[in-house]
Amino acid sequence: MEEKAKKNGKKNKILSIVILILALVYGVSPVDIIPDMPVVGWADDFFIIAFAVLNMLQFSSDDNHPGLSRFAKWAKWLVALFGIAVIVLLLLIGTAVVKLLS
After folding, report:
1. Within 10 Å of residue 26's Cβ, how many Cβ atoms?
2. If we measure between CA atoms, which residue out of 3, 4, 100, 20 comes closest to residue 60?
3. DSSP 102
4. Gap between the Cα atoms of 56 and 38, Å rounded
5. Among 87, 80, 57, 83, which Cα is nearest to 70's?
6. Which residues contact 51 (CB under 8 A, 6 or more apart)?
7. How far is CA 26 from CA 32, 46, 56, 58, 69, in A?
8. Tell me, what's the pLDDT at 100?
9. With left for phi above 0 and alpha for psi between -120 and 50, is residue 39 left, alpha or beta?
10. Calpha distance 94→88 (Å, rounded)
11. Spatial separation of the C-alpha atoms in residues 80 and 68, rounded to whole Å
């Protein structure tokens, strides 16, 4: 049973590294949820990369620092929820501005 837990832990660590790499690629790619404009357009990049970093921190600190792992888990989901709220709000504001100007 313990061997299976170690195998799952290794899979989680590899998956978290893959997620971080994909998040960094998303951060530098020109395709975004919110078009890249100073400050406003960087919000989606920030939240996606922050989520990926916290995810990697959670799974890489499981064995050595369980308290840090728990903190990273909670922080990861708070960043995700806050990020979704900010992105939706920015999209709604953008839609309202476009409607007002057209």
Report:
1. 16
2. 20
3. -
4. 27
5. 57
6. 23, 76, 79, 80, 83
7. 7, 10, 16, 21, 25
8. 95
9. left
10. 10
11. 18
3-state secondary structure 21-87: HHHHHHHHCCCCCCCCCCCHHHHHHHHHHHHHHHHHHHHHCCCCCHHHHHHHHHHHHHHHHHHHHHH
At 36 the pLDDT is 72
Yes or no: say if 90 and 34 are a contact pair by the CB < 8 Å rule.
Answer: yes
φ, ψ of residue 39 to 5 degrees: the values are 65, -65
Residue 16 C-alpha from the chain's centroid: 11
Q: Return the closest-CA partner of residue 54 out of 71, 33, 66, 40.
A: 71
Query: 56-95, pLDDT tens digit by residue?
Result: 999 988 778 999 999 999 999 999 999 999 989 988 998 9
